[in-house]
Amino acid sequence: MGKVGLVSEAQFQTETDSKGAFVRQTSAFREWVTADGSSGFKAEPGRYHLYVSYACPWASRTIIFRKLKGLEEVISMTVVDPVRDDQGWKFFEDEPDPINGYEYLLEAYLRTDPDFSDRVTVPVLWDKQQGTIVSNESSEIIRMFNSAFDHLTGSTLDMHPED
Hints:
The chain has about 160 residues and is of the alpha+beta class. Helices cover about 25% and strands about 10% of the residues. The chain has five helices and four strands.
């Protein structure tokens, strides 16, 4: 498939400030999965896919939450190569994207927003039914995992109590 866009090495330069400290960008996709679907994204078995990298601590917490909440059979998952290039996160050559056949996660971003030009981040919660990114904000993904899918798993574990 080759290179998918003209994302430059500038994406790496925006990751750090002048002192070398990591600068986290604002997540671009902030939709919600709800149990009843009132958000436009209904919690259904097999509908969602989680893209992660073991190299990313924010993605790692979604992996942990998925396991703790018993969502492995409800939400599928793909791990991308831990080394990014100028196109961002790439899928392993021997383990290509099983959902869309993408070579780079950037392709999912551009399918969702053709004008996307920021840094491609993980985790990504993908809606297989609508063919779009629901969220790339880990804190919100884990809150969705905490309760939206409980009716499918029977989980009573609450990792985000109101208090």
